[in-house]
Amino acid sequence: MSAGRGQPTGTRLNARKWYSYKLFLLILPFMALVFLFSYFPLHGWAYAFFDYRPPFQLKDCEFVGFKWFVSLISNASKRKQIVQVLINTFAMSGLGILFSWLPMAFAILLSEIKNAVYKKTVQTITTLPHFISWVLVYSLAFSLLASSGAVNRFIHPEPPAGAGCRTAADASHFPALHGAPAAQKSFPGVWL
Predict the structure, then answer these.
(1) Is residue 75 included in any domain, yes or no?
(2) Is residue 110 part of a domain?
């Protein structure tokens, strides 16, 4: 009647079952979060198949099927934009994967610094940008590097009359790459 260490078989099974229930109860909150944030929002996909007008409920809107999907691929310029968005997405993802080891390497190198004040200063300076919005970073970089920005004003306090500063938005940013004549080959930020 007994199995193992002198415990009845039914008692061991009940203990094992109770342990399994405890483990399930431990993961239950996480399963609820996954459902709440991963599966529950999927009902919003239904909006893609209706001609939705915001003040109305979905059931009061006309069902249009694949109309919006067909409109995405029927126009050549929209197809070109979709391809560009996919290329940008894969490029950003690839760059993220390619350089994902750098923060770890930086942390290892930083841990070798003996001067605690210098180490904390570097940690603070390198961590601070993570708390700033990318919109703010873009705005700051654009205002500094624009043709009328602080960097170009510093490089050329008084530009020649009628001249403009080359910027990254200029199609001939790197004239050597765009087949410009040798007389016009210059570096970015140089007045022409």
Answers:
(1) no
(2) yes
